């Protein structure tokens, strides 16, 4: 009898009070939807509906030796996506690529103007991007009175899609307008970096719900540690002693900041366990992205071609997952309800796309060392700007930890530039001998 009543009771409740049960199920689903791990797994399920069929198709074409036996109107597309032009690895000799301008090329005034232009463009793009990122993920929209709670935007994946669709458009136009190296990489290989890239971006947005923006910036500055570990695992790289030393300094500085901020009672400085887990996910995914892209550059592609290929798959993954979840039209409805959010989302995407172009131009004109110095200064300014605009409290110990992190970053830049200059000065001597 007890077992019978246990089985029948839910059915009776459903028949007598269908609206009540529906409301309870709806509230249960809404509660689960607020859990970041649930959203992450749902996103991964959406990506798998694209990845698994794609994997099966690629395996089929390779197994049937389609490159030699295939024909028809679809043959060029399948060859480009699955096999690429591996016999012709897109050598840079096929295109006139201007060498990176050194300090002695052109007048010093012109070089100074270029440097100011690059620094201003990078600072404006990424500082605006950081401020908007924190505004969109931590503040509500539509509040008319101080008592009104307003409405928060919760879908980080839609913001990733917005960023990627504009970056895809910009890089595609760039490839059309300016001559690029012959493309040789199989298109599907971009999907690995694309998947890790959208997951790292999702973690970056999602983490702001659980940690402060200064904490996130410091964690991004310390990603050199997992990048080195991933480099040893993926690319079998070796590192100098000063790289290990600065990595330890960075970890010490970040630990000082995190331990000092968690003791604060100010809600904007609290770092939760979920926030730390999401940040670890961001660092791991981002480290894999950079190392996989390094391996892809063996095909001698340009940075803009890399940008186009990665963003192409990112748009495919995110829009597919958003449509399957029904979140795409919900986010569009949120944009129509709140014009301020629509402006912020579009401006966020513009800053992200322009920032990538400034990265390519700065590295081409002045090299990676100057670019790293500019971006390190940007991270320091971003922390100060966030504390000023959003009232984040930083203790004395936390401030000292921030200083240690940026000191270590500058030491890395200095040591790397000294090592490269030493190699350049030694090269003519070896040639004379």
Description of the molecule:
This protein is an all-alpha fold. The chain folds into two domains: 33-83, no CATH class; 108-140 and 153-418, no CATH class. Helices cover 76% and strands 0% of the residues. It is built from 17 helices and no strands. The chain has helices spanning 2-16, 18-33, 36-63, 66-69, 75-83, 108-138, 156-177, 190-207, 213-221, 224-234, 241-261, 273-296, 303-325, 327-337, 339-366, 368-390, 396-432. Helix 11 (241-261) packs antiparallel against helix 17 and helix 15 packs antiparallel against helix 16 (368-390).
SSE blueprint and pairings:
Blueprint: H1 2-16, H2 18-33, H3 36-63, H4 66-69, H5 75-83, H6 108-138, H7 156-177, H8 190-207, H9 213-221, H10 224-234, H11 241-261, H12 273-296, H13 303-325, H14 327-337, H15 339-366, H16 368-390, H17 396-432
Helix pairs in contact: 1-2, 3-13, 6-15, 6-16, 7-8, 7-13, 7-15, 8-12, 8-13, 9-11, 9-16, 10-12, 11-17, 14-15, 15-16, 16-17
């Amino acid at each position: 009898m007890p077992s019978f009543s246990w089985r029948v009771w839910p059915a009776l409740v459903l028949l007598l009070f269908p609206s009540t049960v529906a409301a309870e199920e709806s509230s249960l689903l809404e509660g689960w939807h607020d859990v970041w791990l649930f959203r992450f797994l749902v996103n991964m399920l959406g990506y798998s509906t694209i990845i698994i069929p794609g994997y099966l198709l690629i395996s089929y074409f390779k197994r049937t030796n389609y490159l030699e036996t295939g024909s028809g109107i679809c043959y060029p597309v399948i060859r480009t996506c699955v096999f690429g032009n591996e016999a012709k690895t897109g050598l840079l000799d096929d295109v006139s690529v201007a060498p990176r301008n050194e300090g002695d090329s052109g007048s010093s005034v012109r070089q100074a103007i270029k440097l100011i232009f690059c620094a201003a463009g990078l600072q404006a793009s990424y500082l605006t991007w950081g401020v908007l990122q924190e505004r969109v993920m931590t503040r509500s929209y539509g509040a008319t009175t101080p008592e009104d709670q307003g409405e928060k935007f919760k879908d980080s994946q839609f913001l990733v899609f917005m960023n990627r669709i504009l970056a895809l458009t910009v890089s595609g136009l760039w490839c059309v307008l300016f001559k690029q190296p012959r493309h040789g990489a199989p298109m599907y290989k971009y999907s690995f970096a694309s998947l890790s890239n959208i997951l790292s971006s999702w973690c970056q947005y999602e983490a702001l719900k659980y940690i402060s923006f200064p904490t996130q910036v410091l964690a991004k500055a310390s990603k050199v540690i997992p990048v080195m570990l991933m480099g040893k695992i993926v690319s079998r790289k070796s590192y100098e002693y000063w790289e290990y030393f600065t990595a330890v300094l960075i970890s010490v500085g970040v630990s000082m900041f995190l331990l000092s901020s968690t003791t604060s009672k100010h809600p904007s400085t609290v770092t939760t366990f979920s926030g730390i887990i999401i940040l670890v996910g961001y660092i791991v995914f981002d480290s894999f992205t950079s190392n996989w892209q390094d391996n892809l550059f063996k095909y001698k592609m340009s940075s803009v071609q890399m940008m186009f290929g990665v963003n192409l798959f990112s748009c495919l993954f995110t829009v597919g997952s958003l449509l399957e979840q029904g979140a795409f039209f919900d986010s569009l409805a949120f944009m129509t309800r709140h014009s301020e959010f629509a402006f912020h989302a579009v401006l966020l995407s513009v800053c992200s796309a322009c920032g990538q172009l400034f990265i390519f131009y700065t590295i081409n004109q002045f090299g990676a060392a100057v670019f790293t110095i500019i971006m390190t200064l940007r991270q320091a300014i971003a922390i100060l700007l966030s504390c000023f605009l959003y009232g984040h409290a930083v203790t004395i110990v936390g401030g000292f930890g921030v200083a240690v992190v940026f000191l270590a970053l500058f030491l890395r830049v200095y040591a790397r530039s000294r090592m490269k200059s030493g190699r350049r000065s030694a090269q003519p001597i070896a040639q004379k001998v």
